[in-house]
Amino acid sequence: MKRTLHEAIAMLLGVLPLLGSAIPSLAEDTFSTEQMALMAGACANCHGTDGRLAGSVPTIAGRPAAVLEARLLAFKRDEASDATVMNRIAKGFSDEELAALAGHFSAIDPQADEAWETEQGAQE
């Protein structure tokens, strides 16, 4: 019995590192488009639609996902000294949701609106 238990534990410990590398990619795939839109809507209040608002609030569109995720987790854990309301907002999300939001905003081209406006102005 002890040998079987030890073998099972050894096998589980051997598999855990492999599972850890798959978790970030699973987090991004577990939320539907509608769920992501709802979660990202909370960010739009301050960061603008698609995270592109320029001004006193940082633009988050196009920033590396790892940077955004680390920052969001720091807010959630009260490790960011420059937080205004972000520490309270981040606490409303799970770590997986924060990772998915970071991936969502990192995939947005921060210059897309400017390119569209320039193209529209040239056509007029």
What are the key terms here?
globular; Cyt_c-like_dom; Cytochrome c, class I; Cytochrome Bc1 Complex, Chain D, domain 2; iron
Average pLDDT reading: 78
Per DSSP E runs of 2 or more residues, the count of β-strands stands at: 0
Structural class: mainly alpha
Give the strand content.
under 5%
Tell me the CATH superfamily of the domain at 25-109.
Cytochrome c-like domain
Instruction: Tell me about the largest β-sheet.
Output: none
Give the C-alpha Rg: 20 Å
Blueprint (SSEs and pairs):
Blueprint: H1 2-29, H2 33-47, H3 65-76, H4 86-90, H5 95-106, H6 112-123
Describe this structure in words.
- The structure is a single chain.
- The protein contains 6 helices and no strands.
- The model is unreliable at 15-28 and 115-120 (pLDDT under 50).
- The chain has a domain at 25-109: Cytochrome Bc1 Complex, Chain D, domain 2, CATH 1.10.760.10.
- The termini are far apart.
- By secondary structure, it is mainly α.
Write a compact overview of the structure shown.
This protein has helices spanning 2-29, 33-47, 65-76, 86-90, 95-106, 112-123.
